[in-house]
Write the structure tokens for this entry.
Amino acid sequence: MLLAAMREIGLFDPLSDEDLRVLAYFVSAVEFDEGETAVQKGDLGDTCYIICSGRAEARAPGIWGDEVLGSLGHGDFFGELALLLDQPRNADVVCLEAVRCLALGRSDLETLMTRSPDVAELVRAIARRRFEESS
């Protein structure tokens, strides 16, 4: 079941079946309810999340309300900046509907990126873009 869910995520396309099986030992399934804040700006981050189903928004809380930074859905991931930069979360992620995710801890993300340079390049490019947009 977990392997099938992982195979449907484009981020994992560069991984061999064996790499995917190894990674499956380290990921866990996590669910968030509609309206729940999955991660909160300022919190320390030790996990990143890859969305299997559902929709969420990245939001920057502000004086005049939240600014929507982006929409997230199937195959998108969030929380990677806090892991890669070893800094607090830079945005809230609020679930617009029930969201099912795969969760990866810091060392597991590093292992994934080491095993697959293609995945590492994609994660770093998206993280770089998000960092620049949030600065």
